[in-house]
Amino acid sequence: MKTVSLFRKLETKKEDDVPKIDGLRASASQCFSTLAAHAGLDGGVYSCGTEWIKNEENRLHIVQRYDGDEVTSVIFKHAFLPSDPAEFPQILAAHQQAYNALANRDDVAVPKVLAQDVAQQAYLMEFSHGTTFLDLCRGAEDHGPLLRKAGAWIAAYHAGTFKEERAFQPKFMARHMLHLVNQMECGERKIHGQKKFIELAKKLTSDVGSAEGYIGKVSAKHGDLNAHNLLMSDHATTGFDFMGKSDAPVAYDISRFLLSYMQFVGDVDALPAGHVLPPDMMDAFWEGYDFINSNDPTVKFLMKTQVLTDWNRLSGGVNVQRSVRFARIEKIARQAFT
Predict the structure, then answer these.
(1) Do 328 and 281 fall into the same domain?
(2) Exposed, middle or buried: residue 316 (CB in 10 Å: 0-12, 13-18, 19+)?
(3) I need a labelling partner for 133 at 20 to 30 A (CA). Which of 110, 249, 255, 267 fits?
(4) What is the mean pLDDT of residues 129-137?
(5) Other beta carbons within 10 Å of 306
(6) Are 225 and 154 in contact, with CB atoms under 8 Å apart?
(7) Domain boundary, last residue among 71, 102, 127
(8) Mean pLDDT calculated for residue range 273-295
């Protein structure tokens, strides 16, 4: 069975992990059979073709694609750990809200949930054809067309879940960054490159005035809109892996996505001073995203905030991939705040 790019191979680092993974797969198989029956499907004709497992200290998830002869493939997701009876229904609600918002569109989509089991933290959904935005970028010389398509999906999602216009309050984010600075200066917290981080976090306070009180648009917040979580085909762009249901200024998702793009595949050596993306790539994104304007001050402020947030989050990298991402974030930060 060919592995599609939506899935990444399991990397089991310890022999002690094997019983845990075996238990996860057994739980997943049982849950799949139950959910298939609830969805009106004959689970007996399906077999697991590909899978992806997140195996971290406090997190154990599995995503599987089930295939069969003369049946449509389906995706099964099971969050084994952590157990959070309050949060999981919110994740399902966020997914359903997004599906409803885009249900009448052909070019943008969210997979339909076919069955769910809140107690087992599992659900079954339609399979969506395509390749992740990230993998497409890795194989493309020009990322512009892909950023346009990504922008179009994000705009449609925000337009379809629009809640209200609200005054933006960046001072709270600036205060949080200064709180981190205080922790570092008194020795409570240590991160890589913290001297430069402290300098840039203090600079962020000077950007508060340009965005404070701006009346911006608030929509549903994806919560984890990164370069992995958009799937693209010739016909449609599909979004998935929503976090719990919440609302926020649309610039949160925009900033999260664009910084994810830059951390993984964006050309960090093509950044002029004061920019977070190369100008031509930023223009391409805004050609697709039409729900707010490119000069929206909330975007400019939150892009810089996201740079610092990711710096703080990734600085404790314990593997090569995280270390590479952190090095790229440092480069982006130095240009963004110049």
Answers:
(1) yes
(2) exposed
(3) 249
(4) 98
(5) 25
(6) yes
(7) 127
(8) 98
Handedness of CA 309, 256, 327, 270 (dihedral sign): negative
Residues in a beta bridge with 54: 61
Question: By CB neighbour count within 10 A (0-12 exposed, 13-18 middle, 19+ buried), where does 149 fall?
Answer: buried
* Structural domain contains residue 5: no
Give the angle subtended at the CA of 186 by the CAs of 256 and 334, to the nearest 5°: 40
Q: What is the DSSP letter of 269?
A: G
Let me know if residue 8 belongs to a domain.
Answer: no
**Residue that is written with structure tokens 């790229």 in the block:** 328
Q: Which of 171-175, 252-256, 313-317, 327-331 has the lowest mean pLDDT?
A: 313-317
Same domain, 192 and 291: yes
CA contacts within 13 A on the Cβ side of 145: 8
pLDDT beyond 80 at 258 = yes
What amino acid occupies position 309?
Answer: T
Does the structure show a pLDDT above 50 at 36? yes
Is the model's pTM score more than 0.85? yes
How far, in Å, CA of 307 to CA of 312, rounded?
Answer: 9
pLDDT tens-digit map of 93-111: 999 999 999 999 999 999 9
The structural domain count of the chain equals: 2
**45: helix, coil or strand?**
helix
Measured CA to CA, the distance from residue 121 to residue 114 in angstroms comes to 14
Q: State both tokens at 172.
A: 């709270």
Tens of pLDDT, residues 166-200: 999 999 999 999 999 999 999 999 999 999 999 99
Q: Where are the alpha helices (DSSP H) in the chain?
A: 17-38, 87-102, 133-138, 144-160, 171-185, 194-204, 208-211, 251-264, 279-288, 297-314, 320-336
> What's the mean pLDDT when you consider all of the chain?
94
